[in-house]
Amino acid sequence: MDSPLALGRAARQCSLMSRTLRIATWNINSFRLRMPLMEELVSTIDPDIICLQETKVPDELFPREAPGLLGYEHYAFKGMKGYNGVAILSRLPLTVDATAPDWCEKGDCRHLAVSVQTPSGPLELHDFYVPAGGDIPDPVENPKFAHKLAFIREATAYFAARKGFKRTVLVGDLNIAPLEHDVWSHKQLLKIVSHTPVEVDALNAWQKTGFIDAVRHFVPADEKLYSWWSYRNKDWRASDRGRRLDHIWASPDLTPSLKAQRIHRDARDWPQSSDHVPVAVDFAI
DNA sequence: ATGGTTGAGCGTCAA
User: Fold this and answer.
1) Residues with CB under 7 A from strand B
2) Which of A183, A204, A244, A255 is the residue whose CA sits 20 to 30 A from A195?
3) CA of A131: nucleotide with nearest C1'
4) Cross-strand partners of A171
């Protein structure tokens, strides 16, 4: 009987032969707690690159043996005590871009930028964890909401200044559901942080600096699509009050290489699941 | 309008 990891390795050979690069993003909500689910992710989804958010592990406590045991020789992480934290696990070599900005000068571990060495050349990859923004959708009354908007504004300016960038993929928990059908009820969520017009406008401006939505590329805008369901719902599947907070964007030159997307709803039922599920896109590069 | 749950790490904050 093959172990899940052996199956993952066999599948990896296939994916590399067909030159399909599968990139997954997942807000894991504690890397250390969900190590068994990382194995589940690898055996069932088999990504070539895994971008994580909310790892909630300081760098000195990051389990450095874990990526290798899961079959990912190459990795980068940036974490802090208690909150936030991002990590990238990769089967392909990567280099961290140490020149990436410290957003809002908070040093709060919400972004990793790497260059991935693919068979067809380098690919720029960004893993973002955008501030959630608190409960009150008013930047004057709520500093967390102000931080969220400022963060997105800085990121927008950063990519706008690099006009015409290519071979770039941006993923992460962007904590905004931009389209009407990215939430269970557009009308009921218009004043709820994650779907307010000011956030949606900000996110759209960021995307317009040079990205297309690689998941919606495959799914019509009038089709409901979620990647997050609150822990505060007894039966998430029955109520299905979800939001699409997790995104994969690509620079337009990569459009011809987009092969498939998948939002892994079933992961919401994994034992001790995260409230977010993995989202993946296949690129033929 | 409110409350509902989870994680980090031990107070409560953040989501």
Assistant:
1) A 29-30, 32-33, 56, 58, 81-84, 131-134, 144, 175, 230-232, 234, 272
2) A255
3) B15
4) A127, A248
pTM here is 0.94
DSSP 8-state assignment for residue A21? E
Distance of CA A131 to the CA centre of its chain: 13
Confidence at A182, pLDDT banded by 50, 70, 90: very high
The set of strand B positions with any atom below 7 Å of a protein CB reads 3-9, 14-15
Domain ranges of chain A: 4-284
Write down the architecture of domain A4-284 according to CATH: 4-Layer Sandwich (3.60)
DSSP structure string for A197-257: HHHHHHHHHHHTTT-EETTTTTS-TTS---SEE-TT-S-HHHH--EE--EEEEE-GGGGGG
pLDDT for A189-217, tens place per residue? 999 999 999 999 999 999 999 999 999 99
